[in-house]
Amino acid sequence: MTGYGTYPGSEKAEWLATTRRSLLSAIPSLAMAYALPTSAAAEANRPKLRVVSLNWAMSEMLYAMNLTPIAAAEIAGYERMVGYPPTPPDVIDLGFQINPNLELLSRIEPDLILIQSWQAAGRPILERFAPVESFTLYDRGKGDPIEAARGVALCLASLCGNPAVACDFLSRMDQSFADCAKRIAAKEQRPILLVQALSPTNLVVFTGGSLFDSAMRRIGLQNAWSKSPTLLWGSTQIGVDTLAAYPQACVVWIASPDGASSDALFRSDLWRQLPQAVNGQVRELPLIWGFGALPTAERFARLITATLAGSGE
């Protein structure tokens, strides 16, 4: 996580810097969220700043904590690829994550702009409009994205002036993971090969350092793929025939955005001859954004639990 962009002579930049410095001391008070009545919690959730989210992962975290930004990037794409939590109806669409509508951004007059570190090239331009806060969830296949997302949730809630809401959010996420783990443990499970089609002959397999691997470990599932990732954000490109080297694994298939690659592969002789296909050890999941944040990880955990252990979402 990087620091704020400079915003010379701005009181809001000073306020944001003070908020960030005091975050650690504020975290113990987050426990008070448990005691907030519903009406008080709803009032507390209203952001005290005009926040703009130019990143889908940041958007889903804000929506999950009921911290509605004034504007967000690529709303239609978010709804198609992420979709959970849904975008509130009054959020303004600012266009692309890497190339937002700067004229509209200027008219909005935000107090704070949120990005991820992979968007850093555009930061100098964005800093002309407001202080910029950049977060890192994925570290080139290293680290734990869920743990990183937990820290981001605390920071986002504090930056929005509502630190207490993060405690309730994280508690709900932890409880959901625990419920999934209990159901997974009730039935013996095979190691998992988690894949998504890139083409009729090539797949991406999710490895250590990915959001999905982090979620699987939290609910007691073993990733059959133990090699280090070769792609960013915890994944490796493989040929379909590579799956044959893991006959004891269950292949869990995440739907592709277009669907065509998966359909073509499932009709191929190569696929039908795989040991997992022959033995009925293939499970399918709907499209899930593989590079999201904590709400996506929790949704994935519920979906894979429903598929493997027979429990509902």
UniProtKB/TrEMBL annotation:
GO terms for biological process: iron coordination entity transport. The keyword Transport applies. Pfam families: Peripla_BP_2. Residues 50-312 form the Fe/B12 periplasmic-binding domain. It is found in: Cell envelope. InterPro entries: ABC_transptr_periplasmic_BD, Bact_iron-sidero_bind. GO terms for cellular component: outer membrane-bounded periplasmic space. Keywords: Ion transport, Iron, Iron transport, Signal, Transport. It comes from the Bacteria. Belongs to the bacterial solute-binding protein 8 family. This is ABC transporter substrate-binding protein. It comes from Rhizobium lusitanum.
